[in-house]
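Hi U.,

Before I forget, here's the chain from the pilot set. I'm dumping it here mostly so it's searchable later in email.
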Amino acid sequence: MITSTVQAHDQFGRVDAILDQELVRSLNIAARAAAAVAEERARTANGKQISTFQTIAAHGTANGYASGVKGRNPLWRVYDKGTLGKRSAGLKGRNRRKGTWTVNRRGSEYQAHRRDTAGKGIAGLNISNAARTAGRKTLIAAIRRS
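Structure:
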């Protein structure tokens, strides 16, 4: 007997639902790993905790899902790249800064001078990049396991 069959109903809906559940689970695992690394990195040399971090649970976006980490104190951004002479990221308009300039306040003029910042300031702790890298590595590992 020779037969032919036609599959009239696709099963993609069920497969998509399983895939979505795995992606949400993996994103939540990645967010927890990123938060743990950010908490670890957000300690100064004297052991002071700059900020605590909370995870943003996986939620739907226009074309997929997203999760993340949020610092409870915005001060972590200052410690992330550093300040003054120890800043690792470039400052906006760095080449336009003058050494001296004239300031006119309430009718009196005076010369303002930019002070030397070499060796001063807070060294960057590289919080965001380390947390992002740890989260992405964990996300890829979780997706591969599922």
